[in-house]
Amino acid sequence: MSAVTLLDVESLTKRYGSIVAVDDLSFSVAPGETVGLLGPNGAGKTTTMGCIVGLLQPDGGQIAVDGFTPNSPPVSAMVGYAAQRTALYLSLRVSDNLSYFGGLYGLRGGSLTKATEKIVDLFDLGPLTERRVKDLSVGQQKLVHLATAVIHEPRLLLVDEPTAGLDVSARQRVIDGIRRLAAQGTAVIFSTHYLEEADEACDSLVIIDHGRRGAAGPLADLLAAVADPATVITLGSGETVSFDDRDLLAAINSVDQDQIAEVVVERPSVRRLYERVIGGADGSTAEVTPGSTADV
User: Fold this and answer.
1) Dist CA 63 CA 10 (whole Å)
2) 3-state class of 33 per DSSP?
3) Which of 47, 134, 179, 249 gives 20 to 30 Å between its CA and that of 211?
4) How many domains, the chain?
5) Is the model's pLDDT at 243 over the cut of 70?
6) How far apart are the first and last CA of the chain?
7) Residue 68 carries which DSSP code?
C-alpha cells in the first residue's frame, strides 16, 4: 500500500439548514487501501460520499482527488461510485447495462469489449450476461451494480452499503470483488453497518457520529488501542478471573484447574472498538486515545 494519498478530505463540513450533517471531517485514502466508514444511521457517511463524488457542494473544507477538486474533468474518469440504491435498467440484459455505463465513461469499440470482459471475469458474471436484470436476485443485481461502477477501472471507488439486504453468500461475493479491486491498486471507501465486514475487508477505519470523527487510522492500531486484558477464566463457583491473553498458560496455572468451568480468550474486534467510540448498550461512550490510533 502506497504512502502517497490519492484522496484527501480536510475539515469537510456540510449543512442542511440548521442541521450539520458533516462536521469538520478529515481523512485520507491511499492507492490500494480500503477505508471503512462506520457509524450509525444519520452519522454523515452518505453525505460525505456525495461531497467526494461531486453530487453535493460542501459548506466548508477541502476535497482533493489526486490534487483535483470534485467535478473537475480528470476526477470523473478517476472515480467510481456505487450508491446504496441499485441503479440499473431492469428491462435490459446485464451485458447491455455494462455496455451502456461503459459508454458513459467514454469506452467504445474494442476498449469497451475488453473492459466488459475484464469486469465480467472479476465478478464472475459470465452466467448472467444474457439475462435481464429484472430476472436476477437482489444479490446478483448488487454485483452488476458494482460492476457498472468500476467498468472504467477507476482509481478511487466509493461503495455505500454494498451488502445491505444480501444473504451470506452474495455478501461474500461482493466483499471478495472489492478486495480484488483493492489488490489491483484501487483506493476504496467502503461504508457498512456490518462490523464483521469492516474487520474482514478494511485496512483503515473512520468512525463517525453526528458528522464528527470519533476515531480514525489503520485498523491494527485502532484495535490495539482497545486490547484490554482478554483471557477470562470462569470458575465453578461463578467467580471470573481476567488476565492478559499473552499469559494464558500462567493464568490457567494460577488457579485450581479442577475448578475451571470455562476459559474464554477474547480478541480485540471492530465491534469492541465501535462500542468504545460510539457507545455501548448503555449509551455510554469512550474515546480511543489519540496517541495509539495513528490519527490521520
Assistant:
1) 6
2) coil
3) 179
4) 2
5) no
6) 15
7) B
Half-sphere exposure of 143 (CA within 13 A, CB side): 30
Asked whether residue 280 carries a pLDDT value surpassing 50, the answer given is no
End of a domain among 222, 256, 281? 222
Rounded distance, CA 140 to CA 173, Å? 10
What confidence tens digit (pLDDT) does each residue in 39-94 have? Answer: 888 899 999 999 999 999 999 999 999 999 998 888 988 999 999 899 999 999 99
∠ CA 87-209-29, nearest 5°, is 65
Give the burial class of 258: count Cβ atoms within 10 A of its Cβ; 0-12 exposed, 13-18 middle, 19 or more buried. exposed
The predicted structure's pLDDT at residue 286:
37
Among 169, 195, 222, which residue terminates a domain? 222
The answer to whether position 274 is within a domain reads yes
Residues 270, 212 within the same domain? no
Assess if residue 96 is contained within a domain. Answer: yes
Q: Is the domain of 189 the same as that of 268?
A: no
Instruction: Give pTM, 2 decimals.
Output: 0.79
Q: Report residue 233 as a C-alpha cell.
A: 477464566
CATH of the domain at 56: 3.40.50.300
**Is 165 domain-assigned?**
yes
61: number of Cβ within 10 Å: 17
Virtual CA dihedral for 62, 67, 71, 72, nearest 10 degrees?
A: 140
User: Do 200 and 236 have their domain in common?
Assistant: no
Residue span of the structural domain in which 76 resides? 7-222
Give the per-residue pLDDT at 226: 67
Classified as helix, coil or strand, 269 is coil
Cell numbers linked to 106: 467514454
d(CA 140, CA 151): 16
- How many CA atoms, within 13 angstroms, populate the side-chain half-sphere of residue 82? 29
Residue 2 belongs to a domain? no
